[in-house]
Amino acid sequence: MEQSIIEIKNIGKKYNIAHQRGGYVTLRDVLTNVIKSPFSFLKTKIKQAAGLETKEEFWALKDINFEVKKGEVIGIIGANGAGKSTLLKILSQITPPTTGEIILRGRVGSLLEVGTGFHPELTGRENIFLNGAILGMKKKEIAQKFNQIVEFSGIEKFLDTPVKHYSSGMYVRLAFSVAAHMEPDILIIDEVLAVGDAEFQKKCLGKMNEITKIQGRTILFVSHNMEAIQQLCSKTILLREGKIVFCGSTIEALKIYRDKYNKEIINLNSNIKRRGDGKIKLSSFHIEDIKGNRINNIRNDSKIKFVFSYACNEPKNVHDVDMGFSIEKNAITISTIYSSYTKENIEKINHSGNIIFNIKELKLTPGIYNVRARVLVNGLESDWPKNPVGSFEILPKEEYIKMGYKTEPNSIIDIEGQWTHI
Amino acid sequence: MNQSNTIKETIIRPKKMFSFEDVREIWRYKELLYFFTWRDLKVRYKQTFIGIAWAVFQPFITMVVFSIFFGGLAKIPSDGVPYPIFVYIGLLFWQFFSTALSDTSNTLISNQAIITKVYFPRLVLPISSVMTKFIDFIIAAVILIGLMVYYGYTPHISGLLILPPLLLITFMASVGLGLFLASINVKYRDVRYALPFFIQIMLFVTPVIYPASIAGKYSFLLALNPMMGVIQNARAAILGTTPINWLLINISLTESLVLMIFGIYIFKKTERYFADII
Question: Could you tell me which residues of chain B have a Cβ less than 8 Å from any Cβ in chain A?
Answer without folding.
Answer: 1, 7-15, 31-32, 35, 38-39, 42-43, 46-47, 113-120, 184, 187-191, 194, 272-273, 275-277
